Write the structure tokens for this entry.
Amino acid sequence: MLSESEARVLKAISQGRSHPEDIALDLGLKVEAVRASADSLRELGHIQVLKSVDELFSLSEEGLHYAKEGLPERRLLQDVGAGKPISELKDPAIKIGLGWLKKKGWAVLQGGVLKPIGKAAKGKDEEILEALLQEHLKGSQLDEKAMAMLKSRGLVTSSKSKSWSYEITPHGRAALSGHEITFGTDIELVREMPPLTPDIIKNGVWEEKDEGLLLHYRGETYRPRSYDVTLLSERIYPGKKHPYQRLIQRMRDIMLEMGFTEIKGEIVQSSFWNFDALFQPQDHPAREMQDTFYLDSKAEIPSFQKVKEMHERGGDVGSTGWGGCWSPEVARQEVLRTHTTAMTIKYLADNPTPPVKAFAIDRVYRREAIDATHLPEFEQLEGVVMDRGVTFRHLLGVLKEFYSKMGFHEVRFRPSYYPYTEPSVDAEVNVEGLGWIELGGAGIFRREVTAPFGIEHPVLAWGQGVGRLAMLRLGLKDLRLLYQSDIGWLRETPLSRMVG
């Protein structure tokens, strides 16, 4: 039994209509509906479906110009006439055709004079340009060698075009003539079943007939469409969060699960909070223009006397300080924050009483050359713990727990140096196939950092670039992919790669 649309499509094909667009126009159907009916007819053996892919060519912007004005080598040949010194060729638009002129054997350069050779007949490439000026053409209609030459010159563009055509089979003609078909003895037209409703489910009567299933409902007979669940279907790409944002959210969730409070801060910070509050000397190389984005503005800063004394003489914590003369004008200079530590030290200064467990995931800015592993702006994760009696071992335990939740179960630490922590370590994780990879630095804030703000208890601190961790979790070799709208990569990246 055939549905009404299948029977109509089969009849149209039997009358010589072979393309779905033509059949759809004749029958007043959508092209998609014709293709669906044709697929069913093919499964029944009533028709053959012939699919082909053609490459359609059209002119690029430059090719359009040359199709109208002539190729540079043709115009150059006309310009030199019987011969012309190469030094007199002034028009760069024509001069670029010199190489093609010699390659095509239309002219020769002798003693600095360009001379034509015989008669230069119109080439296949010129004929193609003229033809494409009128319409798009299929690759099968064009000279292959000339087409390759035009493509290499960037004068044509191409796109793929799929087409379908149908041919009725002897089995299909027999069906139309009333002979035996797959089930039933003749073509029996029944209506296609409407969308299921509660009333159809309640009052419809199902009947198995000739190995088919029919629905009798309100005096009409309907046949549900059969589906072959083994056939490949068109891929569907559901909406989902950007992999990088999903991973950042995962890191945020882990920190919240571990009892930390998220903090936020301004992108523009004073040098006081970005550098001076962290006991970074005012002549430190990290403050130079090649590392920091300085703004042409000044900021208000808090009472700085204790910070000034710590920098110049070491305050009363047994430090010698940096010596020299600390300048409040330098501290007022505004910058784009180079690390999220500018936010955490300010948060600690505003909350000097323990316990404090805070973290930040935010963007920072540095003057970096752009390459596969460096960008001038990137995300950084930073955390601090300040409480009575916390130790260096507590810091290592927190880091191991965080990395374990991120899917890295082998973690080790190496002694390191950072200007505002002591002792300091680098955290490394073991990645299969890559070995030990450094992910971030950690340590205990020096007393030169905490004492000027009345912080009396140890502060455990760590920070890391989120991008490097994202590259490991997402299997990337180029950091720039995280910030590009590559729809193919976004579609193909599975959700399972984004979580631990």
In short: The chain has a mean pLDDT of 85. The radius of gyration is 37 Å. The longest helix spans residues 243-257. The chain is about 35% helix and 25% strand.
